Amino acid sequence: MAKIPEAENRLFKNIYVCRKCKRKLRAPTMKVLKGKVHCRKCLSKNLRVKRKK
Q1: pTM
Q2: Backbone phi, then psi, for 46, in 5-degree steps?
C-alpha cells in the first residue's frame, strides 16, 4: 500500500492515546511532554503516541 504524506499526517501526527481508557486525542507534542495535557474522559496524564500498524 502506498504511503501518502498527507494521509500519514492526518492519521498519526499529534494524536495520542490514553493509557487508562484508550481514548484518542489530538494535542501538540510539547504540551504532552510538559504534562499540560490530560484525557478528557478520565483526567489521566498518562498518554502514548498512536501506533502505526
Answers
A1: 0.84
A2: -85, 100
Instruction: Look at the block and give the residue holding cell 474522559.
Output: 41
Decide if 47 contacts 37 (C-beta within 8 A).
yes
Reported as a single tens digit per residue, the pLDDT across 5-37 is: 999 999 999 999 999 999 999 999 999 999 999
Q: What is the pLDDT of residue 52?
A: 87
What's the one-letter identity of residue 8? E
C-alpha span between 42 and 5 (Å, rounded): 32
CA distance linking residue 2 with residue 18, whole number of Å: 29
Rounded-to-integer distance, Cα 14 and Cα 47, Å: 11
- Cα-based torsion angle of the residue sequence 23, 28, 34, 37 in order, rounded to the nearest 10 degrees: -40
